[in-house]
Specification:
Length: 169
């Protein structure tokens, strides 16, 4: 006797990228797109493939970012990156953040981790549970920080005589 089960595509799906965003040079870019589990698994399979050529690897970066940010937001991000000649390392940092946000989103939706937990945290967590990122072209790095809501609650450093900075609060 064969086991069968019916499924429907009409079930509303949660977006693992809900509330994920980056800030690049002071400009906010929201992850307005969505990657399905099938899309994520296909891109992950390509990423670990030994016979993946440079062109296919570059295409998978484009596909991941364009799906994550959505058509219009990705076009804004791409124009910003082109205009400011953002270093590749920064773009790869954005890709890494999107992958982390996807992983955390899938864990949130499924209620279980996608891999064994680390002994140390990734950095300060925002109120939405996702690490916030601030990216600077001048340094070409992605900085981990508190989310926008948490940042508003964080006291600002005050200068001491002699130019030293002291954290208050």
């Amino acid at each position: 006797m064969a086991l069968t089960r019916q499924f429907s595509s009409d079930v509303p799906a949660e977006n693992p990228l809900k509330d994920a965003w980056i800030e690049l040079d002071g400009v906010r870019f929201d992850c307005k797109g969505r990657l399905s589990v099938l899309q994520m698994s296909k891109l992950a399979s390509q990423a670990i493939s030994d016979d993946l050529g440079d062109a296919a690897e570059a295409a998978s970066i484009y596909k991941t970012l364009s799906l994550a940010f959505g058509k219009e937001e990705y076009a804004r991000l791409e124009a910003h990156v082109d205009e400011h000649e953002t270093p590749d390392e920064t773009v790869l940092g954005i890709l890494q953040y999107v992958n982390e946000a996807l992983q955390e989103g899938v864990e949130r939706i499924t209620g279980r981790p996608t891999q064994p937990s680390s002994s140390s945290p990734d950095g300060p967590q925002g109120t939405d549970g996702l690490p916030a990122r601030s990216i600077s072209l001048a340094k070409g790095t992605v900085a981990v920080g508190a989310s926008e809501a948490a940042a508003k609650k964080t006291p600002k450093p005050r200068s001491r005589p002699g130019g030293q900075v002291r954290r208050t609060g």
